[in-house]
Design brief:
Elements lengths: L70 E5 L14 E5 L30 E5 L4 E5 L25 E5 L2 E5 L2 E2 L2 E2 L4 E5 L6 E5 L13 E5 L3 E8 L4 E9 L7 E4 L9 E2 L2 E4 L5 E4 L2 E2 L8 E6 L5 E5 L12 E5 L2 E5 L2 E3 L2 E2 L6 E5 L4 E4 L21 H6 L5 E5 L2 E5 L2 E2 L2 E2 L4
Antiparallel strand pairs: 1-2, 2-3, 3-4, 5-6, 6-9, 7-8, 9-10, 11-12, 12-13, 13-14, 15-18, 16-17, 17-19, 19-20, 21-22, 22-25, 23-24, 25-26, 27-28, 29-30
């Protein structure tokens, strides 16, 4: 089913060229007044600390429970607070697996094949109300009471994990992944949250596209372009870049050939877009199953060219199956796997790429050389923040200055807390 309206408003200008050393300035619209300038903080700051959120779960089925390989997407508020119809900011959790095939505690170490499947993949949708601190399940069947779980209208995507999701306004776009039947189709599914009752759409896209894949990344760049990068098509890791202009109909995927040195073919990386339109791709696992420590910026020039640029600084650790989100100019990275059943467990488990200062930081200080410990010695001191982020296959999202992390895998157990 085609979405009735464009997925985003028309943009007046392209994103700036890749520039990893300045504070992002969000685009100003004619009818908006610039926000008051924040008080600058002198010098780069260490990575933040995390704590458990004691969210309200009225019924057991309302909470997402233990899962990994899911997505967590931040959706902005609808309307003005205090007015009728106002809906506060939300986190939308979709899919993921509630168990691992064979009950294996070790993340798959193959370079990627269609035979790798997470058992118990779901198509569940759970909503976390940020202001109300409450989880609600969007059920697959409509309850008979107003307090019963709310059912989205339309056909939902198939059960899946290792998929991608990103917000376009008040819509969550979902693509790819892998489920009990193998690779999911390349269709774009949209969960429209504009109204009180959510609605599923299947977006009509013309021509060839990225194709079925899992372990890839997707982000909205410049509030306009959906970028889909890398992953695994069931045969090998990929390095291709696809773009869909959400402001132009009919929707169509276009394969990009960015200039500059880009990432190698890899899967299980992360991609996050800064407010000025810069995309940061971080980490991943290459075709030889080696975890990567590199980070790359991708941006669109005003003349239409796309260009890769290697991000500055020294990453504290290679990693894959981690999570990363932007808050202002700082890319916050958490957790991740190293292969062979090992995870990033020392102070590098929580890391920040400060793109304004051009440096990486962990919870201790600015990183000037990779942390080369045993990945467990530092965590032996019982740092609560490190303990909370020692996981892989989790998901993260940001609302304002708050970063939320949910689920994941650690020590043979699938995590449950936010």
């Amino acid at each position: 089913m085609e979405v009735d309206s464009s997925m985003s408003a028309e943009s007046d200008h392209d994103s700036p060229a890749a520039n990893l050393y300045h504070d992002p300035q969000p685009p100003q619209h004619p009818q908006q007044q610039p926000a008051p300038a924040a008080v600058p903080v002198a010098g780069p700051r260490p990575a933040p600390t995390y704590s458990v959120v004691n969210a309200i779960i009225e019924k057991k089925e309302d909470g997402p429970g233990s899962r990994c390989g899911h997505t967590l997407t931040a959706v902005a508020a609808v309307g003005e607070e205090g007015t009728p119809g106002y809906i506060g900011p939300r986190l939308i959790l979709f899919g993921g697996a509630t168990a691992l095939e064979g009950n294996s505690a070790t993340p798959p170490s193959s370079a990627g094949s269609a035979g790798i499947r997470l058992a118990g993949a779901t198509a569940d949708v759970h909503c976390y109300d940020v202001l109300g601190n409450r989880w609600t399940r969007y059920a697959s069947e409509l309850g008979s009471k107003l307090s019963a779980p709310l059912t989205p209208v339309g056909e939902p995507p198939s059960p899946r994990a290792a998929h991608v999701a990103t917000a376009v306004g008040t819509m969550v776009v979902i693509q790819g992944g892998i489920g009990p039947a193998g690779l999911s189709a390349e269709d774009l599914h949209v969960l429209d949250l504009t109204q009180q009752r959510p609605r599923w759409h299947r977006v009509v896209v013309q021509g060839p596209g990225p194709g079925p894949r899992y372990g890839h990344v997707m982000a909205l760049v410049g509030q306009r372009f959906l970028l889909c990068i890398g992953g695994n098509d069931g045969k090998r890791p990929l390095a291709d870049v696809w773009a869909l202009d959400t402001a132009a109909k009919p929707y169509e995927w276009r394969k990009l050939e960015p200039e500059g040195e880009g990432p190698p073919p890899c899967m299980y990386a992360t991609a996050s877009a800064r407010s000025d339109g810069l995309l940061l791709l971080c980490g991943g696992r290459d075709a030889n199953s080696v975890p990567l420590a590199s980070a790359y910026g991708l941006a669109k020039h005003r003349d239409g060219r796309w260009e890769w640029a290697i991000a500055p600084g020294v990453s504290p650790s290679p990693r894959y199956q981690h999570a990363a989100v932007f808050v202002n100019a700082r890319l916050h990275v958490s957790g991740g796997a190293l292969g062979g059943g090992r995870m990033v467990e020392d102070s590098s488990s929580v890391a920040v790429l400060d793109t304004a200062a051009g440096v990486w930081c962990d919870i201790k200080s600015v990183v000037t050389s990779p942390r080369t410990g045993k990945y467990s010695a530092d965590s032996a001191g019982g740092d609560a923040s490190v303990e909370l982020t020692r996981r892989c296959r989790h998901a993260a999202a940001a609302i304002g200055d708050m970063i939320f992390i949910y689920g994941g895998l650690r020590g043979g157990k699938i995590k449950t807390y936010l």
